[in-house]
Specification:
This protein is mainly α and 454 residues long. It contains 18 helices and no strands. It has one domain. It holds the Pfam family MptA_B_family.
């Protein structure tokens, strides 16, 4: 009896340590929901700057929520995390896409394929496709009279399958939320495998980047991320070749996932490159009736439009030009140096002797951050590929990039426009600062460990 009484204060103290983080987590959840509720109206009234002003603090609150979720009782915290996540996604589904009309092209491509027509053959505005036009989808397609589709074959398979269930934006967004559910499941499985609290999934579920870019704008990057995560799970649990096939499917949704293959490849393994090449060939085979046009708008204007061919929107090259001016051939030199940087980094990852799941995920996270830095995409949804690693690795650089990407929501349509070079400088400057902070903290930890051992 005396022992149980003496243990009572200790039990109460431990319970308090868990209850307080749970209550704080609930408070942050309420704030994020409240901010999300007003975001559509703030956007309609004040424009994209209001959207940015609300979503970036929401991202910072998610960072705080992740720390609290690790210290809260797991069962209660998961109910809270998923409850808020469902409310958030259900709400933003009520509104038409805000910052992108890409989803209308997805529905159109599915419709064109269902009619037995190669989506790489005609512009949407081509008179040959006039019989497919309607008032709900066709008027919203961007570049309808200048560009055939840009999306690779696995994305096209997905568009065809989903539009057989319904040729509208809502069905497409629900299908992409299904992809997101796969991603969330795999994040939790990998968290368990790496002995980290599964409540860290809040870093993904409450983060404004996937919330708005998948549930509202409905970007096919959700499929890319789901296939990437599935391939990683398969590969990191002992079936590397099968995993490589699934990751290649991911690359054939959007090529940003390509560096992930380096994280599961081992030097001198010739089977995996052959499997990747065969998978690409088989996926493109149904569309080869158009010949080289199968690459779509990617080689017919997109690289120029996005400032890549001219180097205008490659952040590091832009900074170089600000200091040293333009030089003939600087884009080719930059691309060559960037390719070498990615190649040697990828080879270093492949040759690493540390092949645990946790170290592999950290290496892949680093590769993807380097890819994003060198390519410096113009749109926030291109950064969705880093979101699973925000939960899995939780590194400061990943958080800096995922939150900073929201700055790219800036549009030219509004009066007050932040130049892209400024937005990207804040975004990637934050990445460098986060990397420096991480290196400093690791050094301090080594010094502390060295002192303790003495």
């Amino acid at each position: 009896m005396a022992g149980s009484i003496s243990n009572q204060p200790g039990r109460l103290a431990r319970a308090a340590k868990q209850v307080v983080p749970l209550h704080l987590l609930a408070g942050i959840g309420v704030i994020i929901v409240g901010m999300t509720l007003v975001t559509p109206f703030a956007f309609e009234t004040l424009g994209d700057n209001a959207f940015i002003a609300l979503t970036i603090p929401a991202g910072l609150l998610t960072l705080a929520a992740t720390d609290l979720a690790e210290r809260a009782p797991q069962k209660h915290a998961l109910w809270l995390v998923f409850g808020c996540a469902i409310i958030l996604r259900g709400y933003v589904l009520l509104f038409d896409p805000f910052l992108s009309s890409d989803i209308y092209r997805y529905v159109w491509d599915g419709r064109v394929q269902a009619a037995g027509i190669n989506p790489y053959r005609y512009f949407p505005a081509d008179e040959t496709l006039a019989f497919l036009r309607d008032g709900a989808i066709f008027p919203h397609i961007n570049r309808a009279d200048t560009a055939v589709t840009i999306y690779p074959p696995v994305a096209q398979f997905f568009f065809l399958l989903v539009t057989r269930l319904g040729e509208n934006v809502t069905v497409m967004r629900l299908a992409l939320l299904g992809c997101e559910a796969v991603t969330v499941t795999l994040i939790m499985l990998l968290l368990q495998r790496t002995n980290r609290p599964v409540t860290r999934v809040v870093a993904y579920l409450w983060h404004p980047l996937p919330l708005w870019e998948i549930a509202n704008n409905g970007h096919v990057d959700a499929l890319m991320v789901a296939l990437m995560m599935l391939g990683l799970w398969i590969a990191l649990t002992g079936r590397a070749l099968r995993g490589a096939v699934v990751i290649t499917f991911s690359v054939l949704v959007k090529p940003y996932a390509a560096p992930v293959l380096a994280g599961i490849w081992r030097p001198w393994d010739v089977k995996m490159p052959l499997v990747v090449i065969a998978t690409v060939a088989l996926c493109y085979l149904p569309y080869l009736s158009v010949g080289s046009e199968v690459l779509g708008f990617l080689t017919k204007g997109y690289l120029t439009e996005q400032g890549i061919s001219g180097g205008n929107d490659l952040w590091l090259l832009s900074l170089w030009r600000l200091v040293f001016g333009y030089h003939e051939g600087d884009v080719a030199a930059y691309v060559a140096l960037a390719a070498l940087a990615l190649w040697f980094t990828g080879l270093s990852v492949a040759r690493s002797s540390h092949h645990s799941i946790a170290s592999s995920l950290a290496d892949i996270n680093m590769l993807l951050l380097l890819t994003l830095l060198l390519l410096s995409p113009n749109y926030p949804w291109h950064f969705l590929i880093i979101m699973p690693f925000v939960a899995l690795c939780g590194s400061a650089p990943s958080w800096a990039v995922s939150i900073g990407a929201l700055l790219l929501s800036e549009q030219l349509d509004w009066d007050f426009y932040i130049p892209r070079i400024v937005s990207k400088s804040i975004l990637f400057g934050g990445l460098f600062l986060a990397c420096a902070f991480t290196a400093w903290r690791a050094r301090m930890q080594r010094i502390a460990d060295s002192g303790a051992s003495q």
